[in-house]
Amino acid sequence: MDDFPIKAEILDEKAVARAITRISFEIIERNKGSDGLCLVGLYSRGAVLAKRIASKISENEGREIPTGLLDITPFRDDERRQVADSTDIAFDISGKRVVIIDDVLFTGRTARAAIDGLMARGRPKNIQLAALIDRGHRELPIRADYIGKNLPTSSSERVRVMVKEIDGCDKVVIVGENGRI
């Protein structure tokens, strides 16, 4: 964690856990339960968050929630290159209510690529979007249905979501202009 300058800690471990729990309950409430519901997390930290949200929903609903992992790289609009698609969605999304899970919602381009990636795999009943952090600065008309925290930032700042499974801790920080994500 010493390789970037932290300007501010936004969420600590307990706040991240509370946000995940809140998003889980909001998903259940909006969808009137978990029938026909599946989650798709975006690599890499969105995938971790999706697994945690699925676990919370399963805990409350008493049933497993199909959860997949989506690699949006082949669907990005900023880089056109051939890459192996490491998506892992082992269930049919056709006719399902799919919730895309991402760590940070910023310009909306990642969410657009995720929608393209899902549509290439089937035709869901509907697609919803959950983000742990919504920092604004949209370039596309996309909004999250479920938000852990709204975080107004300058476009030069970077938001870094850290999860235990990848980074060894759970927290959200703002890093300065030269910070790496």
Layout of helices and strands, plus pairs?
Blueprint: E1 6-11, H1 13-30, E2 37-42, H2 45-61, E3 67-70, E4 97-105, H3 109-119, E5 126-134, E6 146-150, E7 158-162, H4 164-167, E8 171-175
Parallel strand pairs: 2-3, 2-4, 4-5, 5-6
Antiparallel strand pairs: 1-8, 7-8
Helix pairs in contact: 1-2
Brief characterization of the structure:
The chain is of the alpha/beta class.
Q: Any descriptors?
A:
181 residues; alpha/beta; Rossmann fold; three-stranded antiparallel beta sheet; 4 helices; 28% helix; globular
Top CATH class: Alpha Beta
Q: Let me know the average pLDDT.
A: 92
CATH topology: Rossmann fold
CATH architectural type: 3-Layer(aba) Sandwich
> What percentage of residues falls in helices of 4 or more residues?
25-40%
Q: What does the oligomeric state look like here?
A: single chain
> Alpha-carbon distance between the termini?
11 Å
* Low-confidence blocks of residues: none
- Apparent shape: globular
Strand percentage lies at: 25-35%
State Rg. Answer: 16 Å
The number of helical segments is 4
